[in-house]
Structure formats: C-alpha cells, structure tokens
Amino acid sequence: MKRCTYSIIFRRLVLVLSLLSSLSISVLSQTSKCGTIYSDTTWDIAGSPYIVTCDVYVNEGVVLTISSGVIIKYYPGTELIVDGILNAQGTGTDSIVFTSVKDDNYGGDSNGDGDATTPSPGDWNRIRFYTSSSNTSML
To answer: Which residues is 73 bridged to in the sheet?
Structure first.
C-alpha cells in the first residue's frame, strides 16, 4: 500500500516539475546593497537592479563603477555617499537609472507591493559627494 502511495506522489511530482520546466518564466535578479564599500567595486548589469536598503558609503580612495544599463533603486531615506570616486557613465541608448524602490517601471516590482505604491520626489535622499571625494568622479 505504501509503495503505491509513493508511486502516485512521485508521478505527480514529476508531472509538476515537467510543467514548470516548460514554462518560460522571467525572474529578475536583484542585489541588495547597504553599508561601506571598502575596495574598488563594479555594479554591473548582471546584478541589476541594485536595491539600496540603507546608506551606501564609498570609502576614501575607493572606486565604485556603475555600468551602463544598471538600475539603482533606493529605499526611503537612503543615499549614496561618495568619499572616493563614483564612475557612472551610461550611454544614449543604455542609461543608468537612479530611482525609488517604489518605481515599478524600472527593474520591476522590487518592493513586492504590486501597484500599492508609486514613486515620488523625495522617496530617497541623494547622491552626496564629500569634499574629500576625488574630482575625477564622472556622472
């Protein structure tokens, strides 16, 4: 009797897995960011969108490079603080987007609330450059 039950469960599991594998599902990856960046770092398209969950601080002497096409979404009250170098250069056809986590138009529904929220000015603080930051930063 147990053998028959296991066999039925196994067949149903195989059926479900085969149905799932036949579906074309697009899942956005996303990368959470929070805290200090201590070494040269690149945010590339593979990790996009980048979700800033608390302030991100680029340490003095450190380069943060943001590749073209990357989306950075900020939670309310958060900011990017640059005491090193920020190199963020998009192109005419592949821009870099800095926006609110509430903005579903770029990078999808990153906060998982469907249409419950919409972006508005002031959702996130700013990109702040310390006076000690390098004048070679490029935006």
So the answer is: 51, 99
From the list 60, 29, 59, the residue with the least C-alpha distance to 46 is 29
Q: How many other β-carbons are positioned within 10 Å of the β-carbon of residue 12?
A: 10
> Cβ–Cβ contacts within 10 Å for residue 58, how many?
24
Beta bridge partner(s), residue 65: 42, 87
The distance from CA 10 to its chain's CA centroid, rounded to whole angstroms, is 38
Distance from C-alpha of 133 to C-alpha of 69, rounded to nearest angstrom: 25
pTM across the whole model: 0.75
CA distance 128 to 131: 10
pLDDT tens for 16-66 read: 444 434 333 334 589 999 999 999 999 999 999 999 999 999 999 999 999
Q: How far out from the chain centre does Cα 87 lie?
A: 17
Of 66, 2, 68, give the one whose Cα is nearest residue 33.
66
Lookup: tokens for 20: 């799932």
Spatial contact of 86 and 59, defined as CB atoms under 8 Å apart: no
Dihedral angle at the C-alpha atoms of 74, 77, 78, 79, nearest 10 degrees? 100
